[in-house]
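Many introductory courses stop at the sequence. We go one step further.
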Amino acid sequence: MSKKKSVFVFAKAQVSAFTGGMLDYVVMILCTELLHIHYTISIAIGGIIGAILNFSLNRYWTFNGNKASELAVGTQLLKFAFVVAGSIALKSSGTYLFTTWLKLDYKITRIMVDIIVSLGFNYVLQKYWVFRKRQVQEMNNPD
């Protein structure tokens, strides 16, 4: 993949992550502030809802150049679910630790943790494991 295309895919992934992340963040705040659910649980609820949007965007738009939509959706969903579970665990625990240690509002520490998890965990696993191009090539050319 050319450097220009890699940058474009990275940018699309960030738009997808931001869109799913905004939905996730709004759901977290609504659950915490209106329904009085502890923010660590609200992070999980928002994470699941945001993940549904993010998966759809990644499968049909972000990684479509990799022909991600040609792969079996069940396989991708299973892999994506593992990534989401890890992401939610990192975000919940990271937000709790930062909120406790830094004595900052959970809404601020959540954004800090989201940036770290999104770039260092989610993007890497989605690009190289969940939606990787080689899976399509292996499916089309089994040896």
